[in-house]
Each structure stands twice: as C-alpha cells, then as structure tokens.
Amino acid sequence: MLRFFIVFVVILVALFAAELTQPVQQAVVIPWTEALVHICVALITLVDANVMVFGKILQSTTNGFAISIEAGCNGIEAAIILIAAMLAYPAPWKHRAIGILAGLTAVQALNIVRVISLFYIGQWSPKAFEWAHLYVWQALIMLDVLIVWMIWIRMLPRSAAPPVSSPPPSADRGAQQAAA
Amino acid sequence: MTATEGRSLKQFVLRTFLWLPPCFAAWYFSASPHAAVAGRLARMMVNLFTPGVVSELERSGVNLVFVTTLKVYPAPGQAALLLPEVNPLLYTYGLAMFLALMLAERAKIWKVLLGAAVLLPFQSLGIAFDVLAQVGIRLGPEVAAQAGLSGTELTVIALGYQLGILIFPTLLPIVFWAVSGRLFNEIVMNSPGRITESGP
Fold this sequence. Notes:
The structure holds two protein chains of two kinds.
Chain A: H1 2-20, H2 22-44, E1 51-54, E2 57-60, E3 66-68, H3 76-88, H4 93-124, H5 126-155, H6 171-179
Antiparallel strand pairs in A: 1-2, 2-3
Chain B: H1 3-29, H2 31-49, E1 54-60, E2 63-68, E3 71-72, E4 80-81, E5 85-86, H3 89-92, H4 94-104, H5 109-138, H6 141-146, H7 152-180, H8 182-189
Antiparallel strand pairs in B: 1-2, 2-5, 3-4
Helix pairs in contact in B: 1-4, 2-5, 4-5, 4-7, 5-7, 7-8
C-alpha cells in the first residue's frame, strides 16, 4: 500500500506539473476547455436556445448571466488524479487503458452535468452558485473519481495484479484465495 | 465483482451521499473557529517561507486578512500596508467530504477526530500558498521583491498554490479516509486485482 501511495503521488505531481506547462496548456488544456464549452452549448441548445458561446465563456442571451470555464472547472485535475490512481495500482496495461478511457468518460460526463447545472444555478441564485461551484460540485467530482476507481479495481480479473509488497498472508485471506 | 462486493460498495456510496448534506452543514457552521485555527497555522507557515512578512492575522467575516509588513503605493505619495485576504472555506470544505466518508463507513469517533486534526495543517498550507501567491505572483515583481521572493521560490509557490486549491481540499480527505478507514481495505485491498500481500 505504501508503494501504491508513493507511486501515486509521484505520478500525480508529475502530471500536475506537466499540466501547468505552456506546451501542455496549448496542446491539451485550452483545446479541451473550448471543446467542453461547445459540448455544453450543444447539449443546452437541445432544450434552451437562449445561450451563446465566446471562447470559454457560456452566456445566457435572456439575462446576460455568463460563466467562464477556468482551470479547475474543466475536469482535468480530476482526470489527472484518476489516471495517477490507475497507473499506480498494479494491473495489466490493457486493463489500465480500458479503465482510464472509461473513467475519463465518466468523470468528464459528470463534469458536463456540473457545468450545465452551474449555468442554470447561477441564473437562479448567486449564493447557491457560489456554494455549488466552490464546494459541493468539487466534492462530488472527486467522489466520482473515487467511485470510478473503486469499481475499476473490483472489476480487475482475479489474477491481474502482480505482487507489490511482501507481508505474510493471513490464514483467512489465504483460504479465500485458495477458494477463489 | 461479486454481488456481495457490489452491494457493499453501493451501500457505502449511498451512505456517503446521504451524509454529505449534514456534513456540509456542520462544516459551514463550524467554519469560523475552524478558520481561526487554520489561519494561525497558515500565518506561521507564511512566516517560515518569508520570515517576518505577516505581522497580524485579522478577520473580515469568515475571511482571513493577513496584515503584512509589505508596502504598496496605490497613488503617488501614498503608501499602505498590503493586506492579502483569503477565503478559508476554499481550503477547508474537504472536511465535509472526510466526515461523510468516515460516517458512511461508521468509523470510530477517535479516527474521525484524528483525521480531521491531520487535515488541518494541509488546509493551512493551502491558505498559506494563497497568501504567498498574492504576494509573490499576483501583485507583481515589486511586492515579490519586497518579500524577498524570486526564481525557484516563485515556481514552488505557483505549484503549491495550484496543489493547495485544486488537489489538497478534495484528494487529501479521500487519502486520509483510505489510510484510516476499514472499508477501503475491504473494498479495494481485498479486491480480485488487489495490491497482493504475497511475496515476490
């Protein structure tokens, strides 16, 4: 477990530092953020035509309320944490790749729900927007990452994990493994 | 994933979401004393990084106001002390998440209290990096130079600020829950593809 945490932190800090660099910002962060805005607008216009987009800003044409998708709002930090957790956990590369793809889809899908909900919450109440934006949705996105990661681990094949540490197995767990 | 394993995970997730609203309420209503303690620690941390820069810690509502010895010049002939202000709630809301996770797995109260105490210095670190980011980066090179911040220190501040605001508040509660909680071991470490305990 200690090795998992150390590898997790190393990958996390490396990916996070990489995210802050200009090349990664230009190649990944900014294009994804703009794509996210367009996905949100496309979904919103299915039911509400009173919305327009400028770069990373989403604006209501009814009341002028606008939100700007900034760092921390584009789901990239949550994605980095999920990728680091899946890479740090001992599993075959094929399962890691599937887990990362499915996990990122789940996290970004929830983030789209988050952005759209914030767009409407903000039009309804600035105070509720502040709460939802700064605290509640942040927690929900991270819980989503945790849940996706735990489900992925539970779905790994029984013989998937290579050994990473060496305390002796307990009698109960040895019996469970034998029964499996 | 067996049906029993799936059910235990599902029940845990459901309980966590049920605990979240009361835990957010508890966190919000205890925010003032919580912020006071976190702010004092943050003041010490800022002064460790840039000795003597923060002279006092004041409050403006729930916000923390760090009175510094740094001077700014809002107009010609006018000088004022720099007072960076920080919303501590941005750094402490992870406590609500941590409480929800621990209560969802019915953890022992001492573990909940210990975890909350261990989270505190990290919350203070986030607040400290917010102050340092204001002083070292957002207010320009003149203020940074007064505080003696440059080069590598500014890079550390930029990374620390991003980690402090984007990663620490939500990730650390999960890490501490994982380390101190029984359910993480049951759900994750005993999983089919677990971090195995057999020797290499």
